[in-house]
Amino acid sequence: MAKEKTTLPPTGAGLMRFFDEDTKAIKIGPKGVIALTLILIAAEALLFAFGPQLFGT
Question: Taking the complete model, does pTM exceed 0.90, yes or no?
């Protein structure tokens, strides 16, 4: 039995799909994003609580 070769249908006018292009950007996983968010929230809470004492405002 011969196997049928499956091909993808042609995409619109040679446009690249979003996963075809590999950019040289910093890649952060979901856990990293959550960790950075929690760190920023904690830093803001600390500045709100102790900022006037530290910066004299």
Answer: no
